[in-house]
Amino acid sequence: AMGAAGSGQDTYGKACVVCHGAGVAGAPKLGDKGDWGPRIAQGNDILYKHALEGYTGKKGMMPPKGGNTALADADVKAAVDYMVAQGK
Ligand code: HEB
């Protein structure tokens, strides 16, 4: 389930992998340290804000909560934490 108890990896697998798995449409690919490094350097507050509210960057457009606005903020943040851990 995607409740508060859901792990970041679960949420990633349901809502983020469609773009971040293969790096579709400019999305930084999971585990791509070269793409993630400068993003991680921005700090978690910016990464959370961009994942929750969406933004347009140099490579493309990140939709708010990946387009799944029913997701809890805590689950989106946990998915970011998972992606950051894979990008280090
Ligand atoms: Fe994303 C980016 C997260 C889904 C597309 N993203 C991103 C980031 C993050 C994320 C953290 C980084 C930021 C910065 O750098 O600041 N996502 C995420 C999550 C999810 C997602 C957690 C689930 C919820 N995405 C998604 C989807 C898509 C995307 C589904 C498609 C549709 N993204 C994206 C892009 C990008 C991102 C394109 C890049 C932009 C630029 O340019 O930078």
From TrEMBL:
Domain of life: Bacteria
Domain Cytochrome c, residue spans: 3-87
Gene Ontology molecular function: electron transfer activity; heme binding; iron ion binding
Cytoplasm in keyword set: no
Keywords: Electron transport, Heme, Iron, Metal-binding, Signal, Transport
Listed name of the protein: Cytochrome c5 family protein
Protein source organism: Ramlibacter montanisoli
Residues of the full protein shown: 74 to 161 of 161
